[in-house]
Write a structure and sequence with these properties.
Helices cover 6% and strands 41% of the residues. 49% of the residues are buried. By secondary structure, it is mainly β. Residues 1-37, 166-181, 524-549, 553-560 and 564-589 have low confidence and may be disordered. Strand 11 (148-154) and strand 12 (157-163) form a beta hairpin.
């Protein structure tokens, strides 16, 4: 392209001639050098160049025109204004003078050289570069002072403001804090595709030779605030210690820092020191755990780092931890961002947020095949967003002794054991978390776990919009809540779906939850009759009901009979006194004490109480709220069971045995065969609990096996005994009793000696989650 060159001698000449030199340049008379400085405009002779150029370039060896223009400036300095265009250099432009300003039109003023050597080198103090873009070679300011770069781009790195001495050095919008030597150094791997012939420390260029390449990186960061690494592999024999305010940046995952020393990490803080504004970006870390003789070593280890930025990283094959934040007293980790980081195949942890770590922001994190993909330990005030964690060995996500942590938008797939564990932690929020195919290995692991102990509770734990899916592996429990009495407090579970687990929700027998809130979870009992029945125990059915008596739900699940209504009431014999002291319980309950000798309810035989499973299809569910006292004799909760000699009419009975175990007896009266199921341990005594007993009724020959027993909505271990040859229950016509059954003598026996609040029966089978939801209704957590 043919270009023309016009040199204007002085600003005065420009003014007198009435010419416009590029964008208007005005040096006021109050500028002591304005009388002696030339302002020169350079640009291509094309439509993209707005304005008239003093020098024009043809796209080949444009450095010649720029050097000529630079040499035309007086010794006191001057300004080169660069119009929009792309300029191709074959050599660096410089001049040994001070007070030079090179100003472009933004990224449209673009320079290319060889991606290695600088486009310009400052030849003196007080050089200014603004509104332009270069290739990765950038601009070299060496050891000069007073220089400034504003709105410049080197390769893909954008700098808003860089100065030789500033309290606000901004790198891609990140405040690095104080910095006195914001200089870019370049380090080339021995196998870099394009590199200088040798190290040139004067121009901040280092070339590695595969022998402890970390030494060259350390030398570079000692004199620069940004160390730019080339593509290729850097062998790191000794861990590189970060430097405050210094960023180590590659060109993508093709820049590889590989641990090659004896059990060394790649980048690691020394400890006992604070590091402000550390950055590691755009590179890969290889922990090289398969190296012969290696018994330890991590990828990146940070202690005392604040205001750090760690982005676009891939970390693989670390013997211990991929990336660790582990502060110490007086030197915490805090207020740092981890973004777009992928970690895989690290033995202990992928990302560990450890002691004295706070305010870490994790965004767009993926992890694969680590011991624990993301582990928080005594870490506080963290936001973990957009997580994709897969095939962990022990757990996908575990928080232990953590506080104020928010996990949002997380996906877990194919965890070998547990997926998400929250243990002894406070103020933890999980929102939009999906667990897919957890429990791949042992059959005893869970999707979500909330754990506590007496000495260290888990409190204010929230699970919202959490779900599990199963296609090849099924977790034991969708949600496990486990701890000592009172060790789980203020648990909220809302809009969740754990139905694909073997047991959707399980709480161990010792656990009591203070302040639980369950709402709108998939799989809860939702038929209108369940809500109505539940409302009766809360005293919400009005004057026509006597809350706390016996409702029976039909097999269709669409209607119920409430035997507590005045029009169809049970007989009370004798009058039962109220409790001396009302227990602590949610909802309004009418409690009735049974004296253990002659208190009972009764009603004549009715089909509502009959479970017909002679054809192998007679499901039923029994449920009650009660305070069972400890005792040494057998006591009946309710029964359709008459043992009168010669006129036996036995169907079923629910018993608390002499060991305080709960037992259901199911009788084939025709063949005089009784099947049973008994809890393995004593049920809770001395306090109100909700009990439900589920009979699937799908096989008349294994009636005991088809029973599942629940306490407070959760399965309790129990053992079945089936008598061979059973043909199933028959309708004997025996009366229904609460608190006793008819003995061989024809008199009532096994009188109950505790209290009951509400008790009922459904002619249908509930799944485990429905039992949990029914429990929630009964204690008043669902309205």
């Amino acid at each position: 392209m043919k270009k023309k060159i016009l040199i204007l001698s002085t600003i005065l000449l420009v003014i007198l001639a009435g010419l416009i030199v590029g964008p208007k340049v005005d040096f006021g008379n109050d500028n002591p050098i304005s009388k002696f400085v030339n302002a020169i405009t350079i640009g291509p002779d094309t439509a993209e160049a707005a304005g008239v150029a003093d020098y024009t370039c043809d796209g080949t060896d444009d450095n010649v025109q720029f050097q000529t223009a630079m040499n035309a400036l007086p010794a006191g300095g001057g300004k080169l204004t660069v119009l929009a265009g792309t300029y191709s250099f074959s050599a660096t432009v410089t001049r040994a003078i001070a007070n030079v300003s090179i100003d472009g039109m933004g990224i449209s003023s673009s320079f290319t050289y060889n991606g290695v050597n600088p486009i310009f080198t400052a030849g003196g103090n007080n050089w200014t570069f603004s509104n332009l873009k270069t290739d990765a070679g950038g601009i070299n300011v060496g050891a000069t002072t007073g220089w400034l770069m504003e709105n410049v781009t080197f390769g893909t790195t954008v700098y808003g403001l860089r100065t030789s001495a500033s309290e606000n050095i901004v790198d891609n919008g990140r405040d690095l804090g104080d910095a006195t030597t914001p200089i870019v150094a370049k380090v080339y791997a021995s196998n870099a595709p394009l590199k200088p012939a040798a190290t040139d420390a004067t121009n901040l260029i280092w070339v590695c030779d595969d022998t402890d390449d970390g030494a060259q990186i350390i030398a570079a960061k000692a004199v620069a605030t940004e160390v730019q690494l080339s593509e290729g592999t850097f062998n790191i024999d000794t861990a590189i210690e970060p430097t405050a305010g210094v960023t180590i940046q590659g060109v993508g995952w093709g820049t590889i820092l590989k641990a090659t020393g004896t059990n060394n990490s790649v980048i690691s803080c020394a400890g006992g020191t604070s590091y402000v504004g550390v950055g590691v970006k755009d590179l890969q870390v290889d922990g090289n755990k398969s190296q012969g003789g290696r018994t330890s070593g991590s990828g990146l280890v940070f202690s005392g780092c604040t205001k750090g930025l760690f982005s676009n990283l891939k970390i693989v094959n670390c013997y211990n931890i991929g990336m660790e934040f582990n502060g110490e007293a007086g030197h915490p980790n805090g207020s740092s961002t981890v973004q777009n980081v992928h970690i895989e195949s690290c033995t202990d942890y992928g990302l560990k947020l450890g002691d004295n770590t706070y305010g870490v922001n994790v965004i767009d994190y993926t992890a694969y095949n680590n011991g624990i993909n993301l582990y928080g330990y005594y870490a506080d005030e963290m936001s973990l967003t957009n997580l994709n964690v897969m095939q962990s060995v022990t757990a996908e996500i575990e928080l232990l002794y953590c506080n104020r942590v928010q996990i949002c938008n997380a996906y877990s797939s194919d965890a070998h054991k547990d997926a998400v564990i929250i243990s002894r932690s406070n103020n933890i929020s999980l929102t939009n978390v999906m667990v897919d195919d957890a429990n791949a290995d042992d059959g005893t692991s869970d999707a979500f776990s909330v754990l506590g102990i007496t000495a260290s509770h888990s409190t204010h734990i929230s699970l919202v919009n959490c779900k599990i899916n199963t296609s090849s592996h099924t977790p034991r429990y969708g949600l496990l809540v486990s701890g000592d009495a009172g060790s789980i407090e203020y648990l909220t579970v809302s809009n969740c779906d754990f139905m694909d687990a073997t047991t959707p929700v399980y709480t161990n027998a010792a656990t009591t939850i203070s302040g639980a809130n369950w709402s709108n979870n998939v799989g809860y009992v939702d038929p209108s009759e369940i809500r109505t029945v539940a409302s009766s125990i809360l005293g919400l059915m009005g004057t026509g009901a006597t809350p706390g008596l016996f409702p029976c739900i039909t097999a269709s699940g669409t209607s119920f009979s409430d035997y507590g209504k005045a029009s169809n009431h049970l007989t009370v014999s004798p009058t039962i006194a109220s409790w001396a002291t009302a227990p602590t319980f949610l909802g309004k309950l009418v409690l009735r004490n049974f004296d253990g000798s002659n208190d009972y309810f009764t009603r004549a035989d009715d089909s509502d109480f009959y479970v017909n499973d002679t054809g192998g299809a007679g499901p039923a569910t029994w449920f009650f709220i009660g305070n069972i006292p400890s005792g040494s004799t057998e006591r009946v909760i309710f029964s359709v069971w008459d043992e009168k000699t010669g006129a036996e009419k036995r169907e079923w009975r629910l018993v608390v045995d002499a060991s305080n175990k709960l037992r259901i007896d199911i009788c084939d009266e025709t063949n005089n065969l009784i099947s049973t199921r008994t809890t393995d341990a004593a049920v809770g005594v001395g306090a109100l609990h909700v009990y439900s007993i589920n009979f699937a009724g799908t096989n008349k020959a294994t009636e005991g096996t088809l029973v599942t027993m629940y306490e407070d909505g959760l399965v309790v271990a129990s053992t079945a005994h089936d008598e061979a040859g059973s043909a199933g229950m028959s309708d004997t016509g025996a009366a229904f009793y609460v608190g006793a059954y008819t003995a061989t003598s024809g008199t009532l026996t096994a009188n109950y000696n505790g209290s009951l609040a509400w008790f009922g029966m459904a002619k249908k089978s509930f799944n485990s989650y429905e039992h949990w939801q029914l429990y929630q209704y009964l204690i008043g957590l669902y309205k």
